[in-house]
Amino acid sequence: MKQQDLARALGWFSIGLGVAELLAPRKLEKAIGVRKRHTGLTRSYGLRELTAGIGLLTAEEKNLSPWMWSRVAGDVLDLASLGSGFSSDRNNKSKLTFATAAVLGVTVADVLCSMKLAEDEASSTRSVRHSVSIRKSPEELYQFWRNFENLPKFMYHLHSVKVTGGNRSHWIAKGPAKMKVEWEAEIVDDQPNHLISWQSLPGADVDNWGTIKFEPAQHTKETIVEVELGYAPPAGAMGALMAKLFGEAPEQTVKDDLRRFKQLMETGEIPTIQGQPAGRATSTTKYENYVRDLVSA
Amino acid sequence: MKANCWCGIGEVQVMDVPDPQILNPRDCIVKISSTAICGSDLHLYDGYVPTMQAGDVLGHEFMGEVVETGRGVNNLKVGDRVVVPFPIACGNCYFCDKQMFSLCENSNPNAAIAEKMWGHSPCGIFGYSHMTGGYAGGQAEYARVPFADVGPIKIEDGLSDEQVLFLSDIFPTGYMAAEQCNIQPGDTVAVWGCGPVGQFTIKSAWLLGAGRVIAIDDVPERLQMASEEGGAEVINRNEVDVLEVLKEMTAGRGPDATIDAVGMEANAHGLLGAYDRIKQAMRLETDRPAAFRECIMACRNGGTVSVPGVYGGFVDKIPLGSIMNRSLTIKTGQTHVHRYLRPLLERIKKGEIDPSFVITHTMPLTDAAEGYKMFRDHDDECIKIVLKPGQ
Fold first, then answer.
1. Same domain assignment for residues B252 and B266
2. pLDDT in tens, A142-171
3. Cβ-defined contact of A262 to B19 (cutoff 8 Å)
């Protein structure tokens, strides 16, 4: 079973328990061997369970771990409350022991599930898909892209790509904080004039893959180019940094890359204003920041 | 070189800046002989177009002599005399192929900014904010012209700068505004705004077969030009209720086509005018669409409202109900100048029109700051200013 499915199941469990605690607190207390009335406390625990349950059932799959950790915190509270129950002679000890054992079992499941989810989320793969129409034949576009050494001409986060022989190539990208991120890649699917699919080989700084498809448009003399790029940053702090390989806004980066690909293929050049006169001390960095801020605003 | 730079709201200054250089294979460099101040430059001057940066070189109506070509430009050679269209178009993309050059998909390096503001990006434009590319403009001694193998049109000797300069923008803009009205022989066309674009719209409406042209403004010398040069019947909006008078003039039906040659800084009387001024000052609407509203209300049922006037962002109190219930057609757009260069040059050569009639002032480029102020304030009956670099 997937961790996410387990989390959802635990969400339903929270709902069930929460409803019981809210609607029939006294019955529940008797069942676990508590003699004195604590209906207010039990009902508040019921609300807590319902909140966690709704969270787990409605959150997106990649955001489940905080809700799972809230269940773990609830388990600790439940265990503390049950523990205090043992100090009163009026309570049914055997029923209390059984209840505590049950909660302990659920706690173990909650902790394991939370840890696994958190790990998955940190190293989760990201992928971006975008498409564009280009007034060139699938053949021309395929030929240009198939030589990966052309890619840095319009993918500005790439420093260089060297074809090392056959289907293999060595990629160097500009990482965050001026780091270089490198990997070997291999073409895993190559359908001339139609599709290229590539993937990094084990040992990459960042596991990544990509697919580009070239489809002739139905009613125009254009080719519809669809790109999907994906990457899985390694776990840990380094991974968090690497996750920014495509910048803060990967969708925009891929859009800009594809726009430049179109410009280069259709016009033979990439329009620019870098280096033109202006009545100010030219500061390229400042200008680029200004444009970036506008776009990400 | 000397170049006229935008320095902030209400402030332009001729500064010494580096000479432009070829940056891409399809660029050329033009040594500018004549350049003009456009009404749409006033929107920049008054600070209503976002994404201007202090130091940007202004100007999108210019012509001159080719002094350098990139290796990708084979149709021009050094020494050619050219007029440069204000929109920059690649000539290769889907829209260029459809002759819709101002929608070129490739010429705006800052297309992402335009997409944020407008959903999709139009072409790049010379000297017209960073949203449309941030290209240095032509109120300068030299300009870099991208895609020079597509835009500039060669001009033979025998025609003066003044006769052909306005092929760069306002003549084609007025012509397209009239053409969009699908004028049938005898149609009545009403034009709001008798600035330079309005004047060319009036002339173009006649060229395209209008039976009657009515011009609306409140600046006496502009109305006078519309009447004497343009042969239009004129309405001074300060003196009468424009909508009422138009109804009277057309036996209640309204003009077949109405044209908004005013744009985003229209002034209106009364409550609605005050409303627009306050909302624009508070940045709650970017443009003041008073002329556009009148164009809609005045147009006959099933008629066409054509909008060459420039708008930048968001407006409100647009009578959409009037548009819908009365089957109006709205036609607008930045001018596809490239499409009109040759046919309109032909008309100039044949003597059907001499565009120099609109010029009221000629001054050295170095006086640009004075020129902007004069043009904005209608000082000295100013209608159109041509600047001469190197004087």
1. yes
2. 999 999 999 999 999 899 999 998 899 999
3. no
pLDDT at B365 over 60: yes
CA distances from residue A59 to A7, A48, A53, A66, A162 in whole angstroms, order as listed: 11, 16, 10, 10, 43
Q: By CA distance, what is A255's nearest residue in B? A: B112
Mark yes or no for CB contact A271/B94 under 8 Å: no
Residues of chain A with pLDDT under 70: 1, 121-124, 234-248, 282-297
What does the DSSP 8-state code read for residue B140? B
Same domain (yes/no): B78, B186: no
Instruction: Judge if B10 and B152 occupy the same domain.
Output: yes
DSSP type of residue B265: B
Q: Would an 8 Å CB–CB cutoff place B356 in contact with chain A?
A: no
pLDDT of residue B236: 97
Q: Which amino acid is at B341?
A: L
Average pLDDT over residues B182-211: 98
Which chain A residue has its CA at the smallest distance from B113's CA?
A295
Compute the nearest-CA separation of B92 from chain A (Å): 6
B7 touches chain A (CB under 8 A): yes
| Beta-carbon pairs below 8 A across chains A and B | 111
Q: Looking at CA atoms only, how far is residue A289 from chain B in angstroms?
A: 13
CATH of the domain at B265: 3.40.50.720
Chain B residues 67-126 within an 8 A CB cutoff of chain A = 72, 88, 90-94, 97, 105-113, 116, 124
With CA atoms as reference, report the closest residue to B84 among B124, B134, B133: B124
| Residue A68 burial by Cβ neighbours in a 10 Å radius (0-12, 13-18, 19+) | buried
Q: Are residues B61 and B78 in the same domain?
A: yes
- Per DSSP, the residues of B98-134 read TT-GGG-SSS-TTHHHHHHHHSS---EEBTS-GGGT-
Q: Among residues B332, B351, B373, which one ends one of the domains?
A: B332
**Starting at the edge strand that comes first in sequence, how are the strands of the sheet with B304-307 ordered?**
B233-236, B212-217, B188-192, B257-260, B304-307, B329-332
Q: Higher model confidence: residue A177 or residue B290?
A: B290
Are B199 and B235 in a shared domain? yes
Last residue of a domain, one of B332, B358, B373: B332
CATH number at residue B365: 3.90.180.10
- Answer whether B215's CB lies under 8 Å from B235's CB: yes
Looking at residue B300, the DSSP 8-state letter turns out to be P
Which residues of B are less than 8 Å from A269 in CB distance? 24-26, 72
- Find the CB nearest B17 among A270, A271, A277: A277
CA distance A244 to chain B (A): 20
Domain ranges of chain A: 3-122, 126-271
CA-based nearest residue to A21, from A38, A3, A5, A1: A38
Contact A277 B20 (CB under 8 A): yes
Q: In terms of CA atoms, which chain B residue is nearest residue A264? A: B106
Per residue in B79-112, pLDDT (tens digit) is 999 999 999 999 999 999 999 999 999 999 999 9
Q: Are residues B358 and B317 in the same domain?
A: no
How many structural domains is chain B composed of?
Answer: 2
Fold entry, domain A126-271 = Alpha-D-Glucose-1,6-Bisphosphate; Chain A, domain 4 (3.30.530)
Say if residue B322 is in the same domain as residue B341: no
Residues B236 and B341 in one domain: no
Give me the domain span that covers residue B258. 171-332
